[in-house]
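Q: What structure does this chain adopt?
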Amino acid sequence: MLALRLARGTHPLVLTRRLLVAAAAAGVGFLLLCTLGYAVGHPAQSSASVLRLLWCVLPLAATVQFAVAVARTDPSTRPRPGLSAIGLGPVRLTAVAAASTAVACTLGSMVALLFYLHLRGDITGLPFDGAAAELLAADQPMPLAAALTLLAILPVVAATAAGLALRPRSAPAEPEGVEKPVPSGLPWGVALVAVGLAIETYAGRGGSGDGLPLPGSFDGNPAGVLAGWVLTAFGLALAGPGLTYGCGRLLQSVRPGATRLLAGRVLMDESRRIGRPLGVVSAVLSGTLAAAALYASGTGPAAFGPLTGLGAALVMACTTATLLTAALESKQCREHTTEALLRLGAPPTVLRTAALMRTGALVAVFLPLTWIVAELAALPLTG
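A:
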């Protein structure tokens, strides 16, 4: 109830972000229900149904990441003076954030259920009722308990992840003048990318034909290629903070001025906050470019199914939105520093130029890296 009351008084942009989480949850819920419909309509193909369910893990994970990022930027969950006196301490605010995340995801799941029943023809009186009756096995009764169990996965996982991400921590005080440590994930990330690309190359040349079907019509990817891409994606996400920190170092090299020093220092300080979402976006883009190269070469599928397209669109949209939300969180954390610089007489053009420098440095590093990884991933499949 407290989460609902706080939601009524929040800013429209905050509500928009929560509605985007609900929309992503609706997409994931619809994919899960379609997988259930396939299992009901094809009882003899249980292994294919399980594999289709596993394919839904990618959009589900991307939606959970987006929901956690939105919860971190929610102003109603930030500790403020006076809130502890009325019982809203850090622990209670964390519970409110988890509840708000669960409410948004549950709303999306309910919308997915209504839309699914409408396309099956169970709910009539609206346009396109029963339009996908054959695809969704409308001739078979839908197991309601299984449907509700699948729809409950995302709210529970997202709320738990939000609670863990926002739980109160007692961080040790850092002495002034001491530089933050370099993120330690870069060597491990590079190693995972190399191992993932090696597995993809071996699996692509092996031609084992052991396929994992997507929830559409794309079912020709070898399992080894998929495992290699997952390792590559984890490697890029793990290496993202270290690469962002390196971009900050690069901006401050060779006799920098005040603007370059400011831009580099911000990247170094915010490397952990924006580096991981940036690495995830790089992984998704590299996978998209590799799939496009495979499709253009004629060695891939003739067409992608609609549910495959929905899942890919959810992953790309959620990862991009997570990156933008992390950038917003970084800006909010720098508000006091920005106000102090403006009070000291720093012109606003310096702050804008520093922001452009940060963006340019990240694009100059991550864009070629994404292209190289995509080319190396697609080479064993198209060659």
